[in-house]
Amino acid sequence: MNARIRIHLALAAAALATLGLAGTAAAQTFPSKPVTLMVPYPAGGLSDVIARSVNNTLGKQLGQPVIVENLGGASGSIAAAKVLNGPSDGHTIFQGSPNELILAPLAISSIKFKSEDFRLVQMIATAQIAFLAKKDLPVNSVDEFVEHARKAAKDGKPLTFASVGPGSFYHLLGEHLSKVTGIPMVHVPYKGAAPAEQDLMAGQVDFFLAPYGKKYDEMQKQGRVKVLAMLNGERLESVKQYPAISESKQLKDFTFRIWTGYFVKRDTPEPVVAALHKAITGTLGDPAVHAALEANSQLLPKPQTLAEADKAYTDGTQQFRSIVKTIGLQAQ
């Protein structure tokens, strides 16, 4: 080995050691200021409720306040892009799902980031999906809905469905429903669940396949919306008052759920990711957090190791990209 090669190797080793020391130092001082929990939808929706069920306890785990920031628009991609444009120091956590990080880049041509630009730190919850209809839609079951939708389309007045943005999971569900039934339907995108719910209650849109929250129970009791079914394979105890869609005749296999997780930029130092993982996992073990999430009918997954989280995100990315391909969604 000549002297020049030895010098290059020594420099490389020194650089790696420096990076390692920097990462260790970052972990020892992290967090050095308040942490932002970025929610990619307006206040009032289920995503916001989840964040505010977690942030105070997470702040105690981290030893710094965790401040919720709501930034809606473009299927959540505006908030995601803001996170990516910030520093990779772990002081901004993205509360994300397949909506913003997997589907939006496939549906909106102006989005330049990729799913792989983010790293999943820990799964938070899995949401059940409710089949919501406007109060005066003349149906009381999923099978009645399908027949009504078919007749409306034949009469040249296809039903409209809400989503939280183009390419969102709820957009895909509506398109997939149209495809499997062979019934034309019209997509109406919103910046989040809250404005979509407002228009559903006002009768401006016909139905919304939405993440279920307890508030829908009260809305149904008050006659403001109809909950036709849950997109579950069986009737669950927590929502036993509603049929599982598997109980219908025409859409018995139309079963779906969606997960929410906490993400950071892919190049965040490993010691910082490990510190966040420990704090988030500890937060999920808190009885008050557990109760708050379950009160909103969130299904709590078993905490994952970082390796398990990496695999879950990779598998989820492949799954949703496959759905996009199946329905032929084109970026707009």
Briefly characterize the structure.
The chain contains 11 helices and 10 strands.
Give a structural overview.
There is one protein chain. This protein is of the alpha/beta class and 332 residues long. The chain folds into two domains: 7-126 and 259-327, D-Maltodextrin-Binding Protein, domain 2; 128-257, D-Maltodextrin-Binding Protein, domain 2 (3-Layer(aba) Sandwich). 45% of the residues lie in helices and 19% in strands. The protein has helices at 3-29, 46-62, 77-84, 98-107, 142-154, 169-181, 193-201, 215-221, 270-284, 287-295, 306-327, and strands spanning 35-39, 66-70, 92-96, 118-134, 160-163, 186-189, 207-211, 225-230, 257-265, 298-299. Strands 1, 2, 3, 4, 5, 6, 7, 8, 9 and 10 form a ten-stranded mixed sheet that branches. Helix 4 (98-107) runs parallel beside helix 11 (306-327). It is globular and about 75 Å long. It starts with a helix and ends in a 5-residue tail after the last helix. 43% of the residues are buried. The mean pLDDT is 90. Belongs to the UPF0065 (bug) family. This is Tripartite tricarboxylate transporter family receptor. Keywords: Receptor, Signal. Residues 1-27 form the signal peptide. InterPro entries: BUG (IPR005064), Bug_dom1 (IPR042100).
Query: What structural class results from the helix and strand content?
Result: alpha/beta
Number of strands: 10
Give the overall average pLDDT: 90
Alpha carbon gyration radius: 22 Å
Family: Belongs to the UPF0065 (bug) family.
Protein name: Tripartite tricarboxylate transporter family receptor
InterPro entries: BUG, Bug_dom1
Keywords: Receptor, Signal
